[in-house]
Amino acid sequence: MIPRVSETELSRRLKVLRDRAAASGAQAALLTSPVSIFYFTNLSFITTERPVALIVPVDGEPFAVLPSVEKGHAEYRNSRWGGVVRRFEYYFDYPGDVHVANLIADAIASSDVRSVMGEPLGPKGAYGYSGPPLQELLAKREVKWIDMGDLVAEMRLVKSEEEVSLIEESGRWASRAVDVARGLMEPGKWDWEVSLQASLEISKEMNNVYRPYVPLRGAVGWAVGFRGQVGEFSAFPHALVAERPMRDGDVIGIGSGPEIGGYFAELERTLILGEPSAEVRELFDKMLKVREAAAEALGPGVKASEVDAAMRRRAKELGVENLLRHHTGHGLGLEEHEPPFLDVGISEVLRPGMVVTVEPGLYVPGLGGFRHSDTFLITEGGARRLTSYPEDIDKLKVKR
Fold first, then answer.
1. How far apart are CA 336 and CA 373, in angstroms?
2. Domains in the chain, start-ordered, CATH in brackets?
3. Cα distance between residue 266 and residue 270, in whole Å
4. Alpha helices per DSSP H over 132-245
């Protein structure tokens, strides 16, 4: 069976959305973010510059307005993985003879909605959408606009049992993927070479288990990789490529978190290709101690800032504060980075059901970066790790 949140879970979310819309005085909610639409429907689209919209009447069935490139495809996916959208309307393309924003405003007004709580229209990012403000178009049709604000983000902060289960399943596959990649690593191989081979093997394994493996928001392909974190390039936390193959003695960062039902875990480890030097061992040990301080600070009622502050205090005690390049961690779920962020500037109080990474790192120019990342669930009594893999340096040596 293809893993996903159930129709019962989707219905629960829609009820919360309808209740919040009604409480704001709106007769419908309007969702335009692809992530928001997926959260309530299990439907995902390649939006590019073309806007998409989901209208959820307080007293009616959800309907979508989509570009005609999705005609038939949307109905198919809806019948397979959610079934909560009852009607689809299509426009030919963006921007059209009549700008699509007008068509979406017409679809809202013609459904007898006179007030709508919504997200801004238009895809975010670099695809080049532009158009008249939907608020103004709705006002011309005598429909009141109420800004939705951060409602969906707030709903997504605390994960349900079904969401946690999918994230944990991603974590199990991440552990297996790292194992497979380690078995392929050796001096002279390129990181992309190992990543492609390991991802192919894991994709086949997942396909055999789920019959088939179908990512609901992406495509089969990537399962584990290095993102250029090889040797001296691993000293850049967000390296993109390594400009040489692996060498004996390299510090290498590896990460995985395959999509399961639209959700992601994050598992990262620092590997050593061959035998670590004394300097590498010392830095590795200090990274573990900094990480332990952060993990021990996690728990319900704790501010995100307090977790990051605990990590920074430990780094200062160990004399490695100058080797930090980022905060302790971040939330994740439908997106690989989402609130809450474990940062000294974030006062968000951690609550049971929140899912975060713990991944402080130490970065030494010319030598390498030292970072493990695990995914944690905040519980009533503390925090539970959703990913599992060895942490000690001697268990993370890749021998050839």
1. 12
2. 7-154 (3.40.350.10), 158-398 (3.90.230.10)
3. 14
4. 134-140, 151-157, 161-184, 191-210
In order, the DSSP letters of 222-235 are --EE-TT-BGGGGG
pLDDT at res. 121: 80
Structure tokens at 166: 């999918």
Q: Where are the alpha helices (DSSP H) in the chain?
A: 7-23, 34-41, 73-81, 100-109, 134-140, 151-157, 161-184, 191-210, 278-297, 304-317
- Compute the residue count for the chain: 400
Within 8 A by CB and 6+ apart from 63, the residues are 54, 55, 85, 86, 87, 88, 89, 107, 111
Read off the amino acid at residue 33. S
Closest alpha carbon to 355 in 374, 371, 327, 381: 374
Distances (CA, A) of 216 to 78, 81, 132, 360: 11, 9, 31, 30
The pLDDT assigned to 154 comes to 96
| Rounded-to-integer distance, Cα 301 and Cα 106, Å | 46
Q: Which tens digit of pLDDT belongs to each residue from 24-83?
A: 999 999 999 999 999 999 999 888 899 999 999 999 999 999 999 999 999 999 999 989
For residue range 169-228, what is the model confidence (pLDDT) as tens digits?
Answer: 999 999 999 999 999 999 999 999 999 999 999 999 999 999 999 999 988 888 999 999
pTM: 0.96
Q: How far is CA 110 from CA 67, 107, 141, 202, 258, in A?
A: 19, 5, 9, 49, 42
From CA 213, how far away is CA 218, in angstroms rounded? 11
Q: Compute the distance between CA of residue 13 and CA of residue 18 in angstroms, rounded to an integer.
A: 9
Q: Residue 280: count other Cβ atoms within 10 Å of its Cβ.
A: 20
Torsion angle defined by CA atoms of residues 96, 99, 103 and 106, in that order, rounded to the nearest 10 degrees: -150
CB 53 within 8 A of CB 106: no
Q: Compute the C-alpha angle 102/108/112, nearest 5°.
A: 135
- What confidence score (pLDDT) does residue 124 get? 63
Q: Which of 297, 322, 320 is nearest to 309 (CA)?
A: 297
